[in-house]
Design brief:
Methylamine Dehydrogenase, Chain H, four-stranded antiparallel beta sheet, globular
Length: about 425
């Protein structure tokens, strides 16, 4: 969804506040989540890949009007949906153990930290609950809808509003401590990016391709970096927003822009280390060796995190929309708009596992668990899976020189005529 005229934006918000007149199908398809352009040949090739080992599944509210994801904290999984119920699940079995009715229409995922559970609404309300008892602690108001999970750390709650402002609230009272507001282009992509908090800093990507580092204690800007600059003749062509969370290690932080680039910067100074052209409105992940990007058109790409060299590219999922990736063990976990969860080997990009859920899109990043991960679908399904697969992959066969992709090597190894 593109945001432009202020009156139009306010109209959209007014509609969303009640959900009474909202076209849920249209909202769900904001980024083309219901559009699938996968060929029958692709589907046939993907269908022979072993499944991931299931751990458990459960169900919460259907959430067509927001991007909802669970959170794992203190041995439990917490989830919520648009209808306002906050539910606690046992992380090992998936059994529901407690719930709280917020009596609100919620607009995004749930946050946890400092002993609290945090949710927000289309009206810009931020609600805090005691994690152990479910008791309501406080309610605060920000400037507009909150589409990403509030974050809590160091006695502060940081909330990103739909108009691009970032608010810091006192974790004990909900009282406002500071507000950051940057420049916003006339046309932007509505997104669920949120903020990353680490080392006493708040990191966030913005419209126009900017990555900002903000001091958590007082809201001052430590540095500002350019992930991507607008290019093109029209306003649509010039959109280059950072719509996802950045990722970081001990030395560098990386972000990716829609219709732009992936770029990594020195954490302390904001100086650019490397950048490569790519387009993503989903996001990226990082491990000890690589940066992984879920591209706009369904490819997964791995870059050497030291210099940005392209290491491998997996295109078997081209034609579907991808979630942000999660690094888990030696696998990259990425979900898609068909409701599948895909396990990709981090060393060479081969898809080694693929499991169906309920057929509805999974648009948020899979959430790590002690023995696997969990995803939340648009229909409200919670699916916990292992990174282990239910089948055994045979060793790759020998292919003609024309067959270059790791995935084709794997597929060829399954049929006799590809053997030497």
């Amino acid at each position: 969804m593109l945001s432009a005229c202020a009156g139009t934006v306010e109209m959209v918000r007014d509609v969303a506040r009640t959900l009474a007149d909202i076209d849920l199908g249209g909202v769900a398809d904001v980024f083309g989540w219901q559009t699938v352009e996968m060929s029958p040949e692709q589907a046939a090739q993907l269908s022979i890949i072993p499944g991931a080992r299931p751990l458990w599944q459960n169900l919460i509210d259907e959430s067509q009007a927001g991007a909802f994801s669970p959170v794992f904290d203190n041995g439990a999984v917490y989830g919520t949906g648009v209808n306002g119920r906050v539910v606690r699940f046992d992380a090992a079995s998936g059994r529901e153990t407690a719930s709280v009715d917020t009596q609100r229409v919620l607009s995004g995922g749930i946050g946890a930290g400092d002993g609290m559970l945090l949710v927000a609404t289309f009206k810009g309300e931020v609600l805090a609950f005691d994690e152990k008892t479910g008791k309501a602690l406080w309610t605060a108001q920000v400037s507009s809808e909150v589409l990403s999970p509030p974050r809590a750390e160091g006695g502060m709650v940081v909330v990103r509003a739909g108009d691009g402002r970032i608010f810091s609230l006192d974790a004990a009272t909900g009282k406002r401590k500071w507000v950051y507001q940057g420049a916003t282009p006339s046309l932007t992509v509505r997104n669920f990016g949120g903020v990353l908090i680490s080392r006493g800093m708040v990191f966030a990507g913005f419209a126009g391709g900017k990555l900002i580092a903000i001091n958590l204690s007082n809201g001052s800007v430590t540095w500002e970096a350019v992930v991507s600059r607008p290019r093109g003749a029209t306003e649509l062509e010039r959109i280059t927003d950072v719509t996802s969370l950045p990722v970081m290690d001990e030395h560098q932080i990386c972000a990716v822009a829609y219709q732009g680039r992936v770029a990594c910067f020195d954490i302390a100074t904001g100086n650019q280390i490397w950048a490569r052209d790519v387009s993503s409105n989903a996001g990226l992940a990082m491990d000890n060796h690589y940066v992984y990007v879920s591209e706009e058109r369904g490819a997964i790409v791995a870059y050497d995190k030291n210099d940005g060299t392209s290491v491998w590219r997996q295109e078997m999922l081209s034609g579907v929309k991808l979630s942000p990736p999660l690094v888990r063990d030696n696998r990259i976990v990425v979900a898609d708009s068909q409701g599948y969860v895909n396990l990709i080997r981090n060393s060479d990009g081969v898809i080694v596992g693929r499991s169906a859920t309920d057929g509805s899109a999974i648009i948020t990043r899979p959430v790590p668990l002690p023995d696997g991960f969990v995803v939340q679908t648009r229909k409200g399904g919670l699916y916990a899976l292992s990174t282990e697969t239910t089948g055994v992959l045979p060793p790759p066969g020998v292919l003609p020189a024309a067959a270059q992709s790791p995935q084709l090597q794997y597929l060829c190894s399954l049929v006799p005529f590809c053997k030497p």
